[in-house]
Amino acid sequence: MSTKNGDLFSIWNYDGQITFEDIIEATENFDIKYCIGIGGYGSVYRAQLPSGKIVALKKLHQMESHNPAFVKSFCNEVKMLTKIRHKNIINLHGFCLHNHCMFLVYQYMGKSSLFYVLNNDAEAKELNWSTRVNVIKGVAYALSYMHHDCIPPIVHRDVTSTNVLLNSQLEAIVSDFGIARLLDLDSSNQTLVAGTYGYIAPGEVLSSNISEIYL
Predict the structure, then answer these.
(1) pTM of the model
(2) Domain ranges of the chain
(3) C-alpha dist (Å) from residue 58 to 30, 95, 126
(4) Of the CATH numbers 3.40.50.150, 3.30.1490.20, 3.30.200.20, 3.10.150.10, which one belongs to the domain with range 11-107?
(5) Of 1, 20, 53, 164, which has the fewest Cβ atoms less than 10 A away?
(6) For residue range 127-171, what is the model confidence (pLDDT) as tens digits?
(7) Among residues 7, 31, 149, 158, which one is catalytic?
(8) Cα–Cα distance between 57 and 206 in angstroms, integer?
(9) Which of 154, 151, 172, 150 is nearest to 163 (CA)?
(10) What CATH number was assigned to the domain covering residues 114-205?
(11) What backbone torsions phi and psi does residue 193 show, to the nearest 5 degrees?
(12) In a 3-state reduction of DSSP, which class is residue 107?
């Protein structure tokens, strides 16, 4: 992103088509009425830019923006998403990294997460078996792309129903690359367990040498 007033907010340029002022104006300085979701680490806002384009903004809570671990995760997400392009992977339009304002600008999804849809009776009715199979295929295509077409390969490490988003066509979009990593082809394992318990491979929890290939 760029800023019309210079580098006052340390806006890091990505596609050059969105300015910091556009974001502030579109959300009325992140007014709660534009908030479409709140998580443990940040809030998600819906914003319509002057061009008419609708985007989703993930803004870290003020407290988390001072936590080195979350700043590292934030930067890692930017690093990963600027390296890859795939129809089943969330598209990053831009980002702002500053002590007082940290947010990511993503493509807007017409639906919510797969977790939300599956746990909402009204929404879940739209997911017939054919659609569910297509959702699984979409996730598999994204992982296959990261594992086989990216050089070096990228391992997501936290594929959960919460991190799989659905667009208006009910197609799967993999998101949240905060703990993703580039795979060192010379290394066969890692020492730290990463991911969401209940989803990570049992072998990792038990500290064995065998783990699932698709993460």
Answers:
(1) 0.77
(2) 11-107, 114-205
(3) 11, 9, 26
(4) 3.30.200.20
(5) 53
(6) 999 999 999 999 999 999 999 999 899 999 999 999 999 999 999
(7) 158
(8) 37
(9) 172
(10) 1.10.510.10
(11) -80, 130
(12) strand
